[in-house]
Amino acid sequence: MVRTEDRLDAALGDAHAPATLDAEDVHAWFGDHHVLGDITLSMPANSITSLIGPSGCGKSTFLRILNRMHELVPDASLAGSIALNGIDIYGPNVRATDVRRRIGMVFQKPNPFPAMTVAGNVLSGLKLCGMKTDDPDAVVERCLHRAGLWNELKNRLDRPGGALSGGQQQRLCIARSLAVEPQVLLMDEPCSALDPTSTRRIEDTMRELVDTVTIVIVTHNMQQAQRISDRCAFFNVDEGQPGGIVEIDTTERIFTDPSDPRTADYVHGRFG
């Protein structure tokens, strides 16, 4: 098993507790450009929250705020708070690297290390975080199982990660993220470049993971949002204004009886 550090638990609480993320009055800027305004959103533990809305309304920016990647952008700034189980992840005693252990990220384009083996890719997350394991083979098997890849790759663990199909590479990236045992997994359009079969496998993986991991996903695929998510937050932006949330509700309500006509127009394809 991967050993966790007492310091990390002291800063961010129990590493194995179900994780709720709460954003309160979040604003974000790139230089003088106010890109997000007044975002308040609760993302419940062991659920999938989909962030939907047209391009340019700040969904991906918000996702990156949730694990402190926003601050890596030159001239980026932020106001408001993000809490993991009530603990401010931007607090003065909390390290960004520790936050990213607890809150992992899977990007739109699969990004395994192409020359590194499948097993090496899974274990690379531990090495990047400075974490050790007594049984690396068990970590590889466990994470590939959870990412739905073990049966496909158990006899090919020494193959380069770059030799896999696009869908397999994306699931390998999920396995790499799972190796550090995150409480939350953020996913930025993880299926946008994949075929329908690979998309279905990624969605199946998400539904299996949500028993132990809280998931927040940005998607432009309304059918996907309906299939996988428990709650949806509809983001939108008006000209000259920062992006914001129009409506938050259960997925069923968002798609069948939204309270705002802009939400209905978007989910039914009348704009965006």
Short description:
By secondary structure, the chain is α/β, with parallel strands linked by helices. The protein has 11 helices and 10 strands.
End-to-end C-alpha gap: 46 Å
User: Looking at the structure, what is the overall shape?
Assistant: globular
What's the alpha carbon Rg, rounded to whole Å? 18 Å
Write down the secondary-structure element order. Answer: HEEEHEEHEHHHHEHEHEEHH
Q: What is the makeup of the main sheet? A: 6 strands, mixed
CATH class: Alpha Beta
- pLDDT averaged over residues: 92
Q: Write the CATH homologous superfamily.
A: P-loop containing nucleotide triphosphate hydrolases
What is the SS-derived class? alpha/beta
Low-confidence stretches: none
The name of the CATH architecture is 3-Layer(aba) Sandwich
Q: Could you say what the CATH topology is called?
A: Rossmann fold
Tally of helical segments: 11
Taking strands numbered 1, 2, ... along the chain, how are they ordered across the largest sheet?
Answer: 6-7-8-3-9-10
Q: How many DSSP-defined strands?
A: 10
The number of distinct structural domains comes to 1
The helix content, as a percent range, equals 25-40%
Beta-strand fraction estimate: 15-25%
Structural write-up:
This protein has 272 residues and is of the alpha/beta class. It has a single domain (19-267), classed as Rossmann fold (3-Layer(aba) Sandwich). It has eleven helices and ten strands. The protein has helices spanning 6-12, 59-65, 96-102, 118-129, 136-146, 150-153, 166-178, 196-209, 222-228, 251-256, 261-267, and strands at residues 21-30, 33-43, 48-52, 76-84, 87-88, 103-106, 184-188, 214-218, 231-236, 244-250. It has a six-stranded mixed β-sheet with strand order 6-7-8-3-9-10, sandwiched between helices. Helix 4 runs parallel beside helix 7. The longest helix has 14 residues, at 196-209. The chain is globular. The N and C termini lie far apart (46 Å). The relative contact order is 0.19. The model has no long low-confidence stretch (mean pLDDT 92).
